[in-house]
Each structure stands twice: as structure tokens, then as C-alpha cells.
Amino acid sequence: MSAMDNRRILMIDDNESIHEDFRKIFLSGASADEELEDLRGAFLGAESTSETTPTYDLEFALQGQDGWQKACQAVESGCPFAMAFVDGRMPPGWDGIKTIQHLWDADPDLQVVICTAYSDYSLEEIIEHLGNSDRLLILKKPFDPVEVRQLANALTEKWNLMRKTRAQLDNLEKNNSVLLKAQQVAEAASQAKSDFLANMSHEIRTPMTAILGHVDLIRDGDATEGEREAYYDIIRSSGQHLLDIINDILDVSKIEAGRVQINASPASIRELASSVVTLLGVRAQEVGLSLDVDVDPSVPEWLELDAMRVRQVLLNLAGNGLKFTDQGGVSIRIRSASKGQDVRLEVEVEDTGIGIPVDQQPHIFEAFNQGDNSSTRKAGGTGLGLTISKHLTNLMGGDIRMRSTPGNGSIFTATFDVALASPPAAEVEPEVPAPLPRAPREPEVRTDSPVNPVDVDSIRLHGRVLLAEDTPLNQALVSAYLRKAGAEVSIAENGQRAIEMIEGAEQQDRGFDLVLMDMQMPVLDGYGAVRQLRSRGYTGKIIALTAHAMEGDREKCIDAGCDDYATKPLNRLEFLTLCRASIDSTETLSG
Ligand code: ADP
After folding, report:
1. Ligand 1 pocket residue status of 369, Cβ below 6 Å
2. Residue-level pLDDT at 247
3. How far apart are CA 517 and CA 499, in angstroms?
4. Section 422-444 average pLDDT
């Protein structure tokens, strides 16, 4: 029994001598035990304790109403009674049943013993009025003192246990909701992992398609020297892209595991910035964009910084600027301010590009966030660059902020807290990272059958094929497959264009025999295009091409209205076999 237990008892009876009896029952019980305890204490030489006997706190009322008021006050003051003994008859006021009904209104937890004489209510009548409640016991007069004390003991104990159970249940509920939140967090993490895998699967399959396909084209042996050169370039740039993806993934996993360390050494931010401009300048020139850098004269010449990581951030921001800009260009501005003994370096990268939609701005630094899908897809990337850059600036005591106006360009500002450095003893070149040496990898063994040129050559496609595909590399590859097999190929660079070309051809009675529809395209994607075509009554054959090869993707394509489905990287033999089967079935139907 705890010291906090509630032993408060309310006794309501119109007969004062009964009050006296109760006082004696409880007091004599306690004092008898105390005497025994005292004897034992004297015998054992210990201090007397009377903890084994509960000490009751008794209150008395002569009338039901009076008792009810006491119960109300007790609840209000936060010290409710654990139980009440209520006389069955108390003229002229409320009788026992009415009193108990009021008591329970005031305090639903109150345990009650109704004390009745034979002439009072029958058991059935009591139950009829008060319900079959476990809060109620019936005690017949005349009382047996032991019975009264046992009732008090059991019912106050019951009240206390009930309160404890309730508190524990509340606790459990709280714990449950903590667990539920933890579960939600875990589920969100698992969803993020699935999204990651789906994303990576897509990002890796796209350059893979180009590599495997162009190797097959070279192996055919009938490419001209010029074509072969072009195929080699494609294979190389796709391989490089795969490497970038792998490096990004490694970076993210290292950052998440807290294994990235900042290694600062004296470096010149001017030389670092100009190396970035040299590297990206070629790309900028190719696409007709300007790229300039302005370093404020007050920026100290030598700073203690991790040149490799600062450069990585700068390359990401400026590279993004170029990726997402069609006209104008990218400007890099570098300033500094003193921050105590140190220097706060501020690198601002402004572009005149497409900007970032307002609803996407809060998520732009989250891993695998690729903003607006269509423009990103056109530009390529892993959706990891900004996450990595933000982590790196954080590790260097700074941060990245972004301001962007959709349609008008973006400004990314990265800050780094660095220390002033004295020039290195011999002025060596600033630390520019060399590409990491990579362990040679075991050649992968292909388990699917290699393309057999004889079989591939034996497949002839007679008919007009529309290839809807936005990536130039894949346009070149797939159309080369198709043309070599004898098909006449037209190309649409997005879903909208595909619809126009299909409907235009139908009107001229030169409908396509087969449509190959890439599902991820800018302007209107493959799903949208196929749905529109089907809803307008187009019945021609459509095969979906997708770099997504996750569970459920096939169903998604078929649901949109495609007849069949091929995943990238394409297996040339299987792909051409599928195309021929589709064209043949169209001919059989119409013939
Ligand atoms: P990615 O490899 O896809 O470029 P990032 O993490 O670097 O990954 O960028 C995430 C997304 O943020 C991009 O896909 C793009 O949608 C958006 N974004 C980043 N920089 C810019 C920019 N300068 N202009 C417009 N959008 C941008």
C-alpha cells in the first residue's frame, strides 16, 4: 500500500449513533493493530509501525443532500472520496438510492455500499434503480464490524488500483503514440529508400541503354568510321555520367555516415574559381551561354579551406545554373566579410534560367529531389548535388540559401567559415582534386543471351514507326536499330508532338504501323499522350519504352493504354522481335 493511496470514506446516515459505531469500528480496528505492533516492536526492539493497517479518513453526513455536497467539494478540491457508506432510508430527505444516483453524477468512480434493513428496498429493486454496477455492494443491517472493515479495505483498494490502472493506460497510450510516430518516421524512411532505388534504377538505366546499344551497333561492323567515332563518344560520356552518379551516391552515403572530413589547407579562392570557370566554360560555350566570375578585391588571397570540397560545391551550383538556363548565362560572385578572427566567404551563383517553381523551393535541398521532372529529365542529374553541397557547406560552418523567381532565374548563395592563411612556403598550385583512382572492376558476366547478329539481322520490319523519345542518345540508338531492320522511322521529341504527328499521319491516310512511346518526356509524358490518344479513339499499336523497371511499372503502362512494354537498356533482339510481332498483328487484323 502506498502512502499516496486514497482512504477517504464518506458515511451518510440520518442516525448519529451509527456514525459513532463507524468511528469505533475504524478507530478500534486501527488501535488494536497498533497495540499489537507496539508489543511486537517492544519485543524486537524496533520502532513501532502501524503501516500494515490502513488509516481511514472518515467524514460524516446526516442527509443525502449534505453527503452529495461533501462529495462534490471533495472532487473539486482534488481529494475525492474512495468510497461511501449510504443508509437506505434517511427521512425527510433523499433516500439511499436517490443519494447514490447524485453521488455518481458528481463522482463516477466512487465505490458505494448501501446499508439496508430487511424492510428497505429488495435487492432487485436496488439493481433496477441503480443498474448492475460493480461500484455498488449491499450491506444488510445489523452490521458486523469485521465485515465493514473488510468492505472498506477492499473497496478503497479497488479505487486505488483503478486509478493506477488508468494512469498506466494513459501512459501506454502516450507511449503508443510515440511508437506510432516512430513507425511513421521509419515508414517514411523506407519510402525514401524505395524512391531512391527507383530513381537510381532510372538514372543508371538511361546511360546504360546508350552504352550497351552503341556497343552492339559497333559490333555489327557496318558502321562507317565517322559513325563509330560518334558511338565511342556516346559510350564514353555515358560511362562518365554513370561514374558521376556513383560518386554522388558514395558522397551521400559517406555524409550520412558522418565519414566526410574537412581537410583545410592554404588555397587561393581566385585560382579555385577560375579553374571552375575553365572546366565549365567549354560546356557554356557549346550551348551559347555566358559564364563569368567576379572576386571582390577585398577577398584575402590565401584562405584555409578544403579546396576540393569548396570546388565541388561551386561546380554543382554553377553546373546547375548552366543546366537550367536556356538564354543568358551564369555569374559567380565571391565576397568576404570578417567574422571574428575568421573570414566568412560568400559565393553567389546567379543564373538567368528557368527558375524553380515556388512549391518546389522548400524541398530543393532534399535528397533525390529533382524539381520539375520534365526539365530535369532533359538536363539529367541525380538529384543529389544540392543535398551534398548543403551538407558540405554545413560541415564548413556555413550554409546554402536560395532565391528563385520562376521564369527569371535563381541565385544560390553558399557561405563558408574559413581562417586566414599565410601563403604556402613555395607557391604551389592550389589543391585541385585529381580524379579518385578506382579499383579495376571484375568484368560483369552477362547472364542473358548476347545479341546474336544473325538472329537480329533476320528480323525485318516493314512499315512506318513513330519513335517518341526525348533523349537524343536514345533517339539515335533506337532509330538505328529500327532502320537497320528496314523500318521507316519518324521521331517526336515529346508526347504532345507525338500526338500531333500521329493524328497528322492518320489524316493523310499514312498512319503509323507502330508507335514506340518513351514514358518520361517533357511537355507531355508518355502516360498522358497514350491516354489522350486512346480517349480520342486511336487504336494503333503502342509499345511503352521506359527506364523504370520497378514492380508495377508494366501495369501502369498497360493501364494508360499501351499494348506492350519494353525496358531500357533494350535487348535489341527482344525489342525487334516485339516490334515485329506488334506490326504483324496489326497487319493480320487489318488484312
Ligand atoms: P540534379 O543532379 O538533379 O541537378 P541537384 O540536387 O543539383 O540535382 O538539384 C536538384 C533539383 O533542383 C534539380 O533537378 C532542379 O530541378 C532544381 N535546380 C537546382 N538548381 C537549379 C537552378 N539553378 N535552376 C533551376 N532549377 C534548379
Report:
1. yes
2. 80
3. 11
4. 45
CA 451 to centroid of ligand 1, rounded, Å: 37
Count CB-CB contacts under 10 A for residue 550. 14
512-552 confidence digits (pLDDT tens): 999 999 998 889 999 999 999 999 999 999 999 987 666 67
CB 250 within 8 A of CB 384: no
The DSSP element (H or E) to which 345 belongs, if any, is strand 342-351
Ligand 1: residue whose CA is nearest its atom 3: 383
Contacts of 526 (CB under 8 A, 6+ apart): 468, 495, 517, 518, 519, 520, 544, 545, 546, 557, 560, 562
Rounded Cα distance between 187 and 196, Å, is 14
Tell me the one-letter amino acid at 522: P
**pLDDT tens for each residue of 163-217:** 999 999 999 999 999 999 999 989 988 887 787 788 778 778 888 988 999 999 9
The residues facing 404 across adjacent strands are 410
Contact 499, 567 (CB under 8 A): no
Q: What is the pTM of this model?
A: 0.49
Nearest-CA residue for atom 4 of ligand 1: 381
Q: Give the model confidence (pLDDT) of 399-421 as tens digits.
A: 999 999 999 999 999 999 999 98
Q: Which residue has the CA at smallest separation from atom 9 of ligand 1?
A: 383
Q: Is the CB of 583 under 6 A from ligand 1?
A: no
Go through 93-111 and write b for each residue having 16 or more CB atoms within 10 A of its CB, e for each that does not: bbbbbbbbebbbebbebbb
- Angle (CA) 306 312 313, round 5°: 95
> What does DSSP say about strands 342-351 and 329-339: parallel, antiparallel, or unpaired?
antiparallel
With a 6 A CB cut-off, is 353 part of the ligand 1 pocket? yes
Residue among 248, 280, 330, 356 whose CB has most ligand 1 atoms within 8 A, to mutate:
356
Ligand 1 midpoint to CA 362 (Å): 13
Residue at 271: amino acid letter? E
Residue 356 Cβ < 6 Å to ligand 1: yes
Report the separation in Å between the CA atom of 74 and the middle of ligand 1, taken as the mean of its atom positions: 66
Task: Determine whether the shortest distance from the Cβ of 364 to ligand 1 is under 6 A.
Answer: yes
Q: Measure 17 CA to ligand 1 centroid, in angstroms.
A: 89
CA dist., res. 181 & res. 244, Å (int): 36
Predicted local confidence at residue 591, as pLDDT? 46
The reply to whether ligand 1 has any atom less than 6 angstroms from the CB of 319 is no
Q: How many whole angstroms from 283 Cα to the centroid of ligand 1?
A: 17
Which atom from ligand 1 is nearest to the alpha carbon of 386?
6
In this predicted structure, what is the pLDDT of residue 380? 61
Pocket lining: 347 vs ligand 1, CB cutoff 6 Å:
no
CB 575 within 8 A of CB 566: yes
DSSP character string of 511-532: --SEEEEESS-SSS-HHHHHHH
Q: How confident is the model at residue 44 (pLDDT cuts 50, 70, 90)?
A: very low
Q: Give yes or no for residue 400 CB within 6 A of ligand 1.
A: no
> What is the overall mean pLDDT for the chain?
85
Other beta carbons less than 10 A from residue 52's beta carbon: 10
Identify whether the C-beta of residue 255 lies closer than 8 Å to the C-beta of residue 388.
yes
pLDDT value for 118: 66
